[in-house]
Design a protein that fits this description.
Layout lengths: L1 H10 L57 E6 L26 E8 H9 L6 E2 L12 E7 L6 H16 L2 E16 L7 E2 L17 E2 L12 E2 L5 E7 L2 E9 L1 H12 L3 E4 L7 E8 L12 H4 L11 H9 L1 E17 L8
Parallel strand pairs: 3-13, 5-11
Antiparallel strand pairs: 1-4, 2-4, 5-13, 6-12, 7-8, 9-10, 10-12
Helix pairs in contact: 2-3
Amino acid sequence: MTNRIARRLKSGKILLAAAGVWAASGPLLVSMLKAQQAAPPAQTAPVPSSGPQKGAGPQSTGKPLTFDVASVKPFSPASAGGGRKGGGGGPTGPGTSDPGRIHYAAIRLKDLVINAYNVKDFQILGPGWLDSADETTRLTVDATMPPDTTKEQLRVMLQNLLAERFKLAIHREARDLPKYSLTVAKNGPKMKESAEYHPPKDGAPPLPPGGRRTESYDMYGFPPVQMPAQGGTWSWLINGRCRLGGERATMQDLVNELMKSHLRSLVTDDTGLKAKYDFTLTYSRPRIEEPPGDMPEWVANPPELPEPLPDLPGAVQSQLGLKLEAKKGPAEVIVIDHIEKKPTEN
C-alpha cells in the first residue's frame, strides 16, 4: 500500500477526486481576501466583547493563537496511513466528529497555505516548486487544539504554524487574471429543479450519508455516486474525461466546483438563478499518455467513448443550458515573498 501511494504521488498526477458535502478535504471554499496587508506577524484570537462566549472557541490571552501540540514532518511513504489528507481515519477538525485535532497524511505544502488563507489554488502565487504534486512537497501534519475551536480560529493557527515552521511571508494584492462568467444560454437552463429537502424528524432513522460506489461503471467509465439527502456537488476526474454532478445544488455550488477542480480560475455566478438544481455534466479533457504507474485500470484506461464528448464550455452549454464566457479581470491574490521547502524541526 505504501509503495503504491509513493508511486502515485511521485507521478504528480491527481486523476480522480470526489468532492461532496461529506468530503474530508473540507477547507477549500471561496473567501475573497480583504484589504491589502503584510502577513505574518502572528495573529491572535479575537477578543470577545463581554466575557467568555459559549462555543466561541479558545479565548484570547494576547498570545498568538496556536495549536496545543503540532507535528509537521516531510511525507514518508513508510509512515503513510492511506488517503491524501485524512490518513484513512475520516475527516478531522471543526465540524467533524473529531474536532480536537487535525491529521493530514500527505498534504501538499501549497494546500496547507490554501487551507490557512481560505482561498483557491489560482489565488496563490509563489515559487514554481510549490505546484508540484510529488512527495517532495508533501507533509504529514498532526496537531491538537481545544475541541470548540472554530474554523476561523483553525485558519489563524495554520497561518501561525506556517510562519513559524516554514518562515512564510506573504503580501496581498490585486492582479488581472483569467476569469469566467457563468450566464444563462440563449434557450434557457436545461437543469432540473430539485425536490424540496425535508430533514428527518426527531427519532427518525438517519438518512444515508451518500458516497462513492465503485462496483459498477457507466458507458463513459464513471462509477455512480450517491449524494447525501441534503445535496451538494461532486467530481470525477479520470484519464481523458471529467464528470461534475450536483443534487439540490445552487449555482454558487456549481461555480465553486468549477473553480476548485475543473477551471482553476475565478468564476462568477451571473446567471440570476436562485433555485436548487439536479444536474450531471460530462466533458472531455486532454488524455495523459504517460505510463499509468499504479493507478487503477479504470482510471488510467477507461473504456472507449461511445461518442465524442464536448469540451467543458461546450458541455456547459449543451447539457446545462448555461454559458461560460472567458474574460479577464482583477482578483485578489496572495503573493508568497518567502517560504522554506522543509519545516524546521518539531
